[in-house]
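As a warm-up, study this chain.
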Amino acid sequence: MKIKIVNHGKIMEIECQDNETILDALKREDIYVPAYCAGRGTCRKCRIQLLEGDLEVTQADQKAFDAASLAQGVRLSCQARPKTECTILLCTEDESDFDILTTGAISADKDGKAPGTGTNAKDKEAFAGSGTYGVAIDIGTTTIAMELCELASGRTCAQDSRINHQRAYGADVISRIQASVDGNGKLLKMSICRDLLSGILELTKQAEISAGQIKRMVISANTTMCHLLMGYPCDSLGASPFTPVNIQTIYTDVYSVMGEMLEGSIFTPDMAKQTELVILPGISAFVGADIVAGLLVCDFAKSEDICMLIDLGTNGEMAIGNKFRRIATSTAAGPAFEGGNISCGTGSVKGAIYAVTLEDKAMAYKTIGNEAPVGICGTGVMDITAELIKHEIVDETGLLCDEYFETGVPVGKKSCGEPIVFTQKDVREIQLAKAAVRAGIEVLLKRFGTDCSSLKTIYLSGGFGFRLDVEKAIFVGLLPEGFGGKICIAGNSSLAGAKACLLHADCLKTAKVLAEETEEISLGNDADFNDYYMDAMCFEQ
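Now compare it with the structure written out below.
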C-alpha cells in the first residue's frame, strides 16, 4: 500500500506491506519516529495525522486521544494498518535539540588525564607533532556523546551529541533486545552506525580536519548497545541466564565494524581500516562498559574509601566498593526518569519542564532553554512528585486526592493550548522506578556489608543525575536519607572514561582490571530485593 508522508514540509512516498503498521514501514525506510513503548500503543510519541484516505480508529487510539483529535485524523502510527492509499503528517516531537550531557564534575582534565591515572609520556611521545586525533564516544540507550581529541596533547578540539535513533524500536534495552530477536538486528546496527558517522562528520567540520587524521576511537556503552553495534545476536541477552556474546575489550578497526555502511561517508575503506576502534569491557549482560568507565574516572581502582556509583536511566546501574573489592548490579527502572511512560512526558528537549515548585495550588516551573512548555522530562517528574507529596495531594501510598484522581494535576499548557497534566498513572510509574532503584541500593549496601554512614562519596552519573534535585530525590525515597551531604554529581562519566582510555594505555589496562574484578549480583535472584522493593513503593514522609 502506498503511503505519502509529509514531514517538515517534505513529501515522500513509502510502501506499507500487508499487515505492516505505518511505524514498521517508517522504520524500514529509515524515517525516524520515537516510540518509547516499542510500538505497544501506550506512549503516544509516534503520532500521525491523516490528511487523505482512511485509517481505522483502534482501541489504542481511543485511549490515547480525545474525540476532537480523532475527528482531526490523529492516530498512533504503531497501530495504524492502512487498507487504502493515504497521506499522513508526522506529528512527532522535534528531538534535534535534545539537551545531552557531554561533560560534568568528574571528567578528564585539560591535559586529558583522568583523576588518579597519571600521565603517560610514552603515549604523548608517540603522537607528538603528528597532527593525529582520536574520538571518545559514549553510546547511551537514549543519546550519543562524542569528543574529538588531539592525541599528542589530550586537548578537546570538538564535541558532538545527538539522539540514538534506535529509540524508534523502544526506549529501553529490553525493547532493543526484543527488536533484535524479532529480526531487526541489521536495522539496529545500521541505525547506530549512521548516528556515529554523522557525529564524526560534525566533529571533523568543527575542528577543520580530515577523516584520515583520526587514528583511534574508543567507545563506552552498555552491553546491549555494544552487541547491537557489533551485530552480535541478542537472544542470550534477553533470556535467563542472560549471557552476553562478548564483554571483553574489543580491539578492531572502523572498517571491520561498519563495512558497507561507510559508503558515502567521510571514510574511505583504507582510512577506515587504519582507524583503530576499541570498545571498553563490560561486567555482565546488564552492567556494561559505561559503568566500568565510571568506576575508572571516579577512582575506584585506587581509593581505599568505600564509595558508590549510580547511573540513573532506563536501566539503573550501580556499583559499590573501593580498590580492594567492588560489587555491581542493575535494576529495571524503566523510562520514567527520561520522561517515558509519562502522560505528558518528554525527553530533555527545549521546552521540557525540568524543575517545579507548588505554591497556592499553582505550579511554578522552569523549562529547558526557557522555551514554552512542551512536556515534562525526568527531573520535572521527580520535582512534581515531591511537591505533590509535600502538599499532601499524593499520600504515602501514591494515591492522588479525589480532586485530581480522574483528571490529573494541571502543570501548565503547551503553546497550542493543550494542557500538561500529571496523572495517577504517572505517580505509579515514578513509584515503580524509584522503588527499583532504592531496592537496588539497599541490596548493594547489605551485600557489601556496610551502610550509608560508611560511604565516603556517592557519585551520580548521567543526564538525569546531573540535573536532579538531590533533596527532593531523598524526600521521595529514591535515595536514602544517609546520602545527604555525600553526593557528587559525576556528569557523563562514561564519556570521561572513554576519553581517559583514548589518551592513556594505562587507563585501558585499569578498565580491564575493573571489569574482571568487579563482582555482579543479580537482583532477580536476591532474597531481599522484593522486600526492599515493596518497602520502597511507599513515599517517605
